[in-house]
Amino acid sequence: HNFxxxxxxxxxxELRADTLQDFYRLIEKHAWMEHWKYxxxxxTAYLKKGVIDDAWVVLGxxxxxxxRSVFRNQAGRFGRLRSSGDKxxxxxxxxxxxxxxxxWSHNGTCRVWDRNRPECPPFHDLDYTGAQxxxxxxxxxKHLGAQQFTWQVQLASYIQRQTGIxxxxxxxxxx
Length: 175
Hints:
By secondary structure, this protein is of the alpha/beta class. The chain is built from four helices and seven strands; from the N terminus they run ααβαββββββα. The chain has helices at residues 2-27, 33-49, 61-71, 150-163, and strands at residues 54-59, 79-82, 91-96, 99-104, 110-114, 127-129, 139-141. A seven-stranded mixed sheet has the order 6-2-1-3-4-5-7. α1 runs antiparallel to α2 (33-49). The protein is globular, with a radius of gyration of 16 Å. It starts with a helix and ends in a 12-residue tail after the last helix. 33% of the residues are buried.
């Protein structure tokens, strides 16, 4: 029984890691990598800690075209972002305990909702709007001061206050 639970947890963890890797591969063609090396390191710290409960990729129009060529007939692996204002934008949805995060591929603020609020975006839908992934959040974190770990420390502190999960600056250093 414990072996089955551990195996199931490991499989789910691998699927989440694959989802994040897929997102990083797709957005590297559209997003400024100077932004993403810090965001990637930050979210990878939580992935390594094993606390990401769900992950879902929502692609803007340009990333959808890339996904069709890279992933061929697996369009159901991703949601579609409609009416975001910019065809290059995509969003990574993550859930850690009771918190849902919308991490935008470009200069967007990281938005956070309590998953029990009606305004919280659902996971695994096929269509999303930009407003749905931007509005009525409980917390927003701008990505300012990445090289000094300013936003990372602020967001990690918020996550710790809300969930009790702690990561340290050394965990999300860019190497």
